Amino acid sequence: MSLHIELEHHRRTLIVRLKGELDHHTADAVKVKMEEAILRGDVNHVVLSMKELSFMDSSGLGVILGRYKLITARGGKMVVCDVNPAVYRLFEMSGLFKILSIQDNERLALSSLEVVS
């Protein structure tokens, strides 16, 4: 299975929707697309929607951690939403939830960043 990456700008927030599998085969594509969008655009925050992400391995954790460092170095925040139970467990075991915020859906994620009017 492959991965589809959908990017949307909402005010100064980049919404990244991942569909499919985020693993060592697809991690570089996610890294490049997210970095280009963050560095090229007027982006303060990132919402990472995993609603249709069916699988993720440690390569995916590395991609997320790297983009988290990039956005926080610019003074922004990253929020993860719509995480399925298997990916949630991977986040818990890795300790990423100690630094990343998690919300149930995109609307709540955007609200938590005070982006929704």
UniProtKB/TrEMBL annotation:
PROSITE patterns, sorted: STAS (PS50801)
Record carries keyword Phosphoprotein: yes
Annotated Gene3D superfamilies: STAS domain
STAS domain mapped to chain residues: 3-113
Keyword flag rRNA-binding: no
Entry keywords, A to Z: Phosphoprotein, Sporulation
Similarity comment: family membership: Belongs to the anti-sigma-factor antagonist family.
Entry function: In the phosphorylated form it could act as an anti-anti-sigma factor that counteracts SpoIIAB and thus releases sigma f from inhibition.
UniProt name for this protein: Anti-sigma F factor antagonist
Gene name tied to this protein: spoIIAA
